[in-house]
Amino acid sequence: MKKIAIAFIVFICVSCSNENGNTLQIPEDINDGVSVSSLENHDLDTLLLSQLNTDIYNGMYGEIHSLLIMKDNELVVEQYYREGERDKIHFLASVTKGFVAILIGIAMDQGYIDSLNRPMLDYFPEYKEAEKDEQKHKVTIEHLLTMTSGFEWDESTLPFTDPNNDGVSMDAVEDKLDASLKLKMDTVPGTKYVYCGPNDIILGEIIKETSKQNIEEFAVKNLFEPLQINEYRWSSNNGIYHTGGGLWMKSRGMLKFGRLLLNNGKIGNTAIVSKNWVDKTFTPYIEMKKPLYMGYQWRNIHSDEGLLSYFVSGNGGQIISIVPDLNMVFVVTADNRGKSQPLKELAERVLRIHPDYKMKTTPNKK
What we know:
The protein is an alpha+beta fold. It has two domains: 24-86 and 281-361, no CATH class; 93-248, Beta-lactamase. Helix content is 33%, strand content 17%. The protein has helices spanning 2-16, 46-57, 96-109, 125-130, 141-145, 166-171, 176-181, 198-211, 215-224, 251-262, 275-282, 343-352, 357-360; strands at 64-71, 74-80, 90-91, 232-234, 236-237, 240-241, 247-249, 266-267, 270-271, 286-289, 292-294, 299-302, 308-314, 318-323, 328-334. The strands form four sheets. Strands 2-1-15-14-13-12-11-10 form an eight-stranded antiparallel sheet, with helices on both faces. Strand 13 and strand 14 form a beta hairpin. Residues 1-20 have low confidence and may be disordered.
């Protein structure tokens, strides 16, 4: 009897020694606008999920901090690891850009921006008057959204530990809008994909110029409050918001944002952003590198089995992924900066837990 009691105590200690441990937790209803359910109610493959959860816990994917999965608009998986906590905001890095794209859409819907073909310099008359490069006068809002502005820029060749990396250099600049608008041109706008954070700096300031609200104020009123995103942080410097990667948010907030787009921009019957804009956001505009295509800041990709996903990701391993064919959204937060980020494999394993995965992934889907 004594041995049984000791064994039971050990079991309890192992299960509870770390609330972010390797046991699957049941999502809690905390009245934050997220509906919760169980794995069983959605027929998810608990064996595959348990294996994935254990691998994440054991470090197979580095410093993963959270994994949240929503199916049919209900949160069914909510796991936190290491530093991750439900009530702790997390650095989103370039996932921020996905929010910027939708805020531009809301500004379009509300009439603040009249056309995506409007040259960016129209919003900054002093720069328009001084700019001598004809190519820069051709850069439009759509070029900024699709990373085809044509600016001379490289934040990929050198590591972020190198001060000569363009992204690192820009971080040190006091007036980021001025530096962004004064970038030299490299290619004809609309012809080449180049990942370029200053595009988003300019987009954020276009919202400010047109709506007379900074992007944080605009986001709170038109996106965060409707989604019940109450705790966040958006870094800024001298009044210029870091729209390329300065947003911090809880994992549930990221999930609610993904759910909004899965539901074509609606919360219930209320449209937060138009379906037309959501469709444009996910439409492939230019090939990045097969199998990746860029839309409006969001990318789309087919899985190895041909399943289409839309996602936005950030340095360190953050991701919001939307899978319409499975009616699924999943979120990952992490801190794998400077390390290998095997998000593709992790994402594939998340998809495989869905009961309809095999049915939706036929060879003809590719």
